[in-house]
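Reply to dn_fold:

You asked what the input looked like. This is it:
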Amino acid sequence: MTPVARRMPGSVDAHLRNPRSVVLVLLGFLLARPVQADLPGVLSARSLGDDPALSTAVERALASLPDLAAAEGRVRAAQSTSQPAGRFPDPVLQVGVEQGTFTDVSMARAMVGVAQALPPPGARDRARDAAESRVRFAQAERDRVRLSTVAAVKRAWLDLLLVQARLDLQARLELLWAQAENLARTAYEAGRVAQSDLLRAQLDRDRLRQRRAALEAEARARRAALTRLVGADPPAPSLGLMDLGDPPIPTEDAAFSEALARSPEMAAAKAISGEAEAYEGLTRAQRWPDMYVSAGVMPPFSGDVPMWQVGLGIDLPVRGRREAAMASAGALTDAAASDEASLRAILRQRVSERVAALDGFVAANDVYRGGLLIRSEATVASTLAQYPPGAVDFTAVLEALAGHLGDVESFLSSVAGAWAASVALEEASLDPVALPGVGSPVAPAGRTLSAVPSPLRTSPPAAAGSAMSGM
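and this is what came back:
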């Protein structure tokens, strides 16, 4: 019988030692799975919010964040102090002894009375408005902590998805490079290529090991950052970066309107403006003097005829305090209005930057999906096909493989950048937000409304009269 078993080893050995055959194996491996099947958004346009694991991570972060608990405490404190605002001041109990002479005790009378301050009309309403504005500011501060926390978790999640996708690409790259090294070794042992081809393949494999070590370290760092935010080990993502499509691109006007309604900084600025207007109204109401009424009885130590007294008093504005308070309140109202306009302009700028960034990322992704990656893959296929007849050298093969996988990695970074820009729009922050590959580090979650300037938060203007001291 024909010695097929004896011919097969020789045939396989000849096949492995034939550079053209090994190139065909590489070509078949690369093209066995079309790149279009791997592109985010090609087979399904999934959203970042579709991942239930991310929703769980956000809920855990909100439940465990100390900064959010502190902000909630400040809201409760402001609500507690606002409840008695606008009420009449507490009455004053007066107790005394009235004696007509120093020697005749029979003329002494005990006195028990009550005095009550009466603020000017409208003053109590303005004091109540100021207290409610302080509650709204505390609520805006809590909302900022919440929005920043959610955005920080989503950004950390995207960072983890990106590094995981890069590790998957790294595995594919290592497999291709191992095949390329075998190709170079076979050709070198057959005397068809110079030793430099084999050395180049081995050098690039060593560089790949370095890159894998860096990516694995980055993955641990990203997971540690996410663990800090979540407060425990985060759940494993159920959607990878390859599963995500692109977020929708809003118009700039629509995005700005939504940011105005959502921005805690704008809510805080409005609260401060409301507080300043309330204090200005309070000082205007106090142009009229505070009044005091008192009433008491004076039963005698001896005898049967008690006496009584009723009194009425007013403040005497002789030291100019009311005029100074009115001038100060008017200046603070103007300053608060200017601050609000400034914050509005900054928010418009941030929204424009983020919409432009999102539009740029999505446009780049369309280029990747529309032909760049297909041409990159075709370049690899063409280079591999031209290697056996000697039209290109081995360096061109390696560069084509690295270039194609580099294009895929850049595409993944662009997809992550699009979602990071969308998250920044949801956060509605006045601070610049770093996107993948651009900018500076993002401010940590839990920061306060430092962008909202106002002396009213720490030292409100003092009321001009003692009648308002209980409000």
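The longest helix spans residues 123-189.
Hope that clears it up.
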